[in-house]
Amino acid sequence: MNALYSLFAVFVLILVGMGGTAAGMTHLFGVVIPYLAIAIFFVGFVAKVIGWAKSPVPFRIPTTGGQMKSHDWIRHSKLDNPQTTGQTIARMALEILCFRSLFRNLAVQRFGSTEDGVDMKVRYASSKWLWGFALLFHYSFLIVFVRHFRLFTDPVPGFLSGLEFFDGLLQLGVPTLYLTDVFLVLGATFLLLRRALLPQVRYISLVADYFPLFLILSVACSGIMMRYFGKTDIMAVKELTMGLFSFAPAAHIEGIGAIFYIHLFLVCVLIAYFPFSKLMHLGGVFLSPTRNLPNDNRAKHHRNPWNDPNVKAHSYADYEDEFREKMVEAGLPVEKGLDEAAQTEAQ
Ligand code: HEM
């Protein structure tokens, strides 16, 4: 049902875009809504980031998956349990650029089952599909996004032409097929089917999980229709986009078809929805204290700066001072022996 609600919502959005253009509201859809969407995006994004940045993180709370730095003869897992800022940056870079934690994702497999399931065994096996398609999807999206800058720049920077050249390297069809268009749709479809078909993922999937995928697919498909089937007047589009960028939007531009306004409207909804959705992992991944902190808990003492001075804390050292004799008597390990403690007290 959640998938159907999301699909329905995207259909309504497409109808709104179509209806608006048919009614001649091109100024609303070509100028007002894009500005509004960008304003919502910036305010929402900044507010979210400020909110996260203001959350107190007095202690080191990274999630770790390997040996912490310890004795010299125990091998330290530098990437999975970073001790220094440099190691943390390396861990973050691998996570952000290569989705390393997803690469290490394991799938549970059941095998050897009998009728009543008594002999069923469970094992964990490497599962690279999700990682592969997630990478394909995100990098294709990024390249499609960056390629669009040719619509906003005049003259078009050289590196964009280079990107277009490599993206269309197969030289298939007229206009040339961009590989990233195919990969983007392929990646998003895989992520959608995984949610809809795998029972354990479907069980935890909400409208907020399906809606962005359907929305991104509709943006990609409307763009593809425009480029390969509908044929839009790119010069007219460029006049509009350059006008928007220079804050001097053109009043009315001839020759831009309805499909462009639908594409733009869907993009605007995506942009405005972004800060309030799971898509904010784009910003969140950098600010996650379970990732961006070195695990130096044993090496450094981290004192909570928000500790109330009026509240008397009882540290382990205090505890040991209080019960040292009894602990030694009971044969419990102590950090300071009786002699050492007496010496320190005498000083
Ligand atoms: C999240 C942002 C966007 C995504 C994911 C997206 C996606 C796509 C895709 C997949 C295509 C097919 C051809 C290609 O890859 O170049 C396309 C084409 C197109 N898009 Fe977008 N788009 C986005 C934003 C925009 C914006 C903001 C505009 C204009 C203001 C725009 C205008 C166009 C135009 C005019 C085409 C046709 C290009 C051609 O005929 O070569 N798109 N878009």
UniProtKB/TrEMBL annotation:
Gene Ontology MF terms in the entry: electron transfer activity; heme binding; nitrate reductase activity
Q: What is its main location?
A: membrane
Pfam families registered for this protein in UniProt: Nitrate_red_gam
What subcellular locations does the record give?
A: Cell membrane
Q: How does it sit in the membrane?
A: Multi-pass membrane protein
Electron transport in keyword set = yes
Task: Tell me the ranges covered by the NarG-like domain, including all copies.
Answer: 127-282
**What's one GO-annotated cellular component?**
plasma membrane
**Regions crossing the membrane:** 33-53, 129-149, 169-193, 205-230, 250-274
Q: What Gene Ontology terms for biological process does this UniProt record contain? A: anaerobic electron transport chain
| Assigned keywords, A-Z | Cell membrane, Electron transport, Membrane, Oxidoreductase, Transmembrane, Transmembrane helix, Transport
The protein here is known as: Nitrate reductase subunit gamma
Q: Which organism is it from?
A: Desulfovibrio ferrophilus
